[in-house]
Write a structure and sequence with these properties.
alpha/beta, about 20% helix
Length: about 80
């Protein structure tokens, strides 16, 4: 991924990504602002925990799974 320095959007929905540990490979993408990981095993059963883990790992993200950052921070598991 080190050669993708200009990548700003990445759509990985339904790709059988097993673990959020795979986010490590995306940390070196300084312009990444939009990421779609929905419907992967790594999303788990707790949407809130998933979103918070992704945002902590990739703090420059503005949009995750088609939700803006403000929505990501305040959406609860019950929603």
């Amino acid at each position: 991924m080190s050669r993708c320095q200009r990548l700003s959007e990445l759509y990985l929905r339904r790709n059988r990504i097993p673990s959020l540990a795979e986010l490590f490979y995306l940390k070196g993408l300084p312009r990444l602002r939009v990421l779609w990981l929905a419907e992967n095993p790594c999303c788990g059963t707790s949407p809130h925990r998933y979103r918070m883990t992704v945002l902590r790992t990739l703090p420059r993200l503005q949009k995750l799974d088609n939700q803006g950052r403000c929505c990501l921070l305040y959406t609860s598991d019950a929603a």
